[in-house]
UniProtKB/TrEMBL annotation:
Pathway: Cofactor biosynthesis; NAD(+) biosynthesis; NAD(+) from deamido-NAD(+) (L-Gln route): step 1/1. The gene is nadE. Residues 4-243 form the CN hydrolase domain. L-glutamine binds at residues 116, 173, 179. It is an enzyme of class 6 (ligase). GO terms for cellular component: cytoplasm. CDD domains: GAT_Gln-NAD-synth, NAD_synthase. This is Glutamine-dependent NAD(+) synthetase.
Length: 573
């Protein structure tokens, strides 16, 4: 019985930090060697970080990536390493290098280049057109990259026809709600359909608005999970694969026999390695991480996304405007969980319209989180503004101008603290507000990062209840009182917009699913409400374009996912 030990290095690289990524890869190679792994695989573009975007258009960036690959190979012996990098031939390719005995023995080029949503790989890479098959001790292992495995007809099929027992697929697959389950089900189908073991290694960590969830896993030929890594955590995942058993199963399967007769994959490079699969001296426990609830994964994605944006960009502390409302409360919780209470500052900026209850709630939250807070009232500043505008506004009634002045005063205060102390401002707006423009440019939209930018208001409440289930930090009243910007007496969000459960559904149908007015109305919504919200969404594209970036958690976030022209006369009705 011949068993090969696979190690999947679920790491968190940093885009463009070659020295850091190189050392991280070496660290995990050494861990894998100590655990007697035969093969250790790293994520897609692990050497450069993902996605490097237009850095790929810099020749010096490509050359530096190749320099570190050469440097890396000198440190790889007594194990086979598969590492994602950028290959340079007549063009550039998203590639996987197979390193053995201090040599790059083979290179695989990604065949299916995603060019939808947040992906732009056709902008940078040429498509690969060949297979790379490793022959190890008379057994065969195929190599593929990320998108290659998502299509029904893909390199996994060809590797099975060529007699491979295992396919290793390296990935940089970002998180969105529901994707982890869909991905896992897809991989189970691929392994079952091809009677092949699949080792899927994914990246973890935050990169700008993307968060990579990990969830690396190894499946047997029946689609059963042999080992699964934790989500959002660096980890070395190991499993022993019985290659003889796979070979016996494949011999008995007529589907593969027929496919081998009918279809002969072309352009296959088979690399015969003199590597002998190790006789293991130690047993490993093949860990299967427990599935998390979707809300738990979403919260973790927001924490990791904020943590890595702050740390990878060299910031130390953040500052948040605390209003006593649900959005700023949840944002503060995420910040403390991501960065530690000592690195989070809260600022209360009450006006004459701020209720006593809101001040009490903000202070209680800060006390529960144990963060330092400052109170800077804005009434006198606001009064001075009104005094200066008295002549030019003469005869005009107060309107949103005066409301927005208050938001912009608060924005100025936060930015002044940011400038003086080097704290980055974390905006607290959510996706519901961003969608309909219920926010103020240069006011509550100021900030270097918007944690809740892709989180609908109803999901804000779900996340807040979830956070309180861990430890009760958000005051009860924050969870139950009507949301309000408190920019004038008796103001509430839902009176100006719609009840959030209705508003959020319309946003989902229009923004995330591209349904028409007629289609949304047929789902049970009032036509006037649908038209009102769609009109607000369409006309506020200019605002969203000026908003800070934030963490993507849905299938279609504003920004890279949904790219609408600002100057645009197309109307749905």
């Amino acid at each position: 019985m011949k068993k090969i030990r696979l190690a999947l290095a679920q790491i968190n690289p940093v885009v463009g930090d070659f020295e850091y990524n190189y050392n991280k890869i070496l660290e995990f190679i050494e861990k894998a060697k100590k655990l007697e792994a035969d093969i250790v695989a790293f994520p897609e573009l692990a050497l450069t970080g993902y996605p490097p975007e237009d850095l790929i258009l810099k020749p010096s960036f490509i050359e530096k990536n190749l320099y570190y690959l050469e440097k890396l190979k000198e440190n790889v012996d007594n194990i086979i390493a598969i590492v994602g990098f950028i290959d340079k031939q007549e063009d550039v390719f998203n590639a996987a290098a197979v390193i053995y005995n201090k040599e790059i023995v083979g290179v695989y080029h990604k065949q299916f280049l995603p060019n939808y949503g947040v992906f732009d790989e056709n902008r940078y890479f040429q498509k690969g057109d060949g297979l790379l098959l490793l022959s190890i001790d008379n057994y065969k292992v195929g190599v593929s990259i990320c998108e290659d495995i998502w299509y029904p007809e893909n390199p996994v099929n060809d590797y099975a026809i060529l007699g491979a027992e295992v396919v290793i697929n390296i990935n940089a697959s970002p998180y969105s709600q529901g994707k982890v389950k869909r991905r896992e089900e897809m991989l189970k189908v691929r392994s079952r359909d091809n009677l092949i073991s699949i080792a899927y290694v994914n990246m973890v960590g935050g990169q700008d608005e993307l968060v990579f969830d990990g969830n690396s896993l190894i499946l047997d030929t029946q689609g059963e999970i042999l080992a699964k890594a934790e989500s959002f955590e660096e980890e070395l995942l190991l499993a022993d694969i019985d290659l003889d058993e796979i070979f016996r199963l494949q011999l008995k399967d007529n589907r593969l026999k027929n496919l081998r007769y009918l279809k002969k994959p072309i352009n296959v490079k088979e690399i015969r390695l003199d590597y002998k699969i190790k006789n293991k001296n130690n047993q490993i426990s093949q860990k299967i991480a427990l599935d998390r609830k979707e809300i738990e994964d979403t919260y973790k994605a927001l924490v990791v996304g904020l943590r890595d944006y702050i740390n990878k960009n060299g910031f130390k502390k953040v500052v948040i405007g605390l209003s006593g409302g649900i959005d700023s409360s949840l944002t503060a919780c995420i910040a403390v969980d991501a960065l530690g209470k000592e690195n989070v500052k809260g600022v209360l900026m009450p006006s004459q319209y701020t209720s006593k209850e809101s001040i009490e709630d903000a202070l209680e939250l800060a006390k529960n989180l144990d963060i330092e807070t400052f109170t800077i009232p804005i009434k006198n500043i606001f009064d001075k503004y009104l005094e200066e505008f008295q002549e030019i506004f003469k005869g005009l009634k107060p309107d949103t101008t005066e409301e927005n002045l208050q938001a912009r005063i608060r924005g100025n205060i936060l930015m002044a603290l940011s400038n003086k102390f080097g704290w980055i401002v974390i905006a607290t707006g959510n996706k519901s507000e961003m969608s309909v423009g219920y926010s103020t440019l240069y006011g509550d939209m100021v900030g270097g990062f918007a944690v809740l930018k892709d989180v609908l208001k109803t999901k804000v409440y779900e996340l807040s209840y979830y956070r309180n289930s861990i430890s009760k930090v958000i005051p009860d009243r924050v969870l139950t009182k009507p949301p309000s910007a408190e920019l004038r007496p008796n103001q509430t969000d839902e009176a100006e917009l719609l009840p959030y459960p209705i508003l959020d559904q319309i946003i989902q149908f229009y923004v995330e699913q591209d349904l028409t007015v007629e289609e949304i109305v047929k789902l049970g919504f009032e036509e006037k409400d649908v038209k009102k919200i769609i009109n607000l969404i369409d006309k506020n594209e200019y605002k969203r374009r000026q908003a800070p970036i934030g963490i993507k958690i849905t299938e279609r976030a504003f920004g890279k996912d949904r790219r609408m022209p600002i100057t645009n006369r197309y109307k749905e009705f």
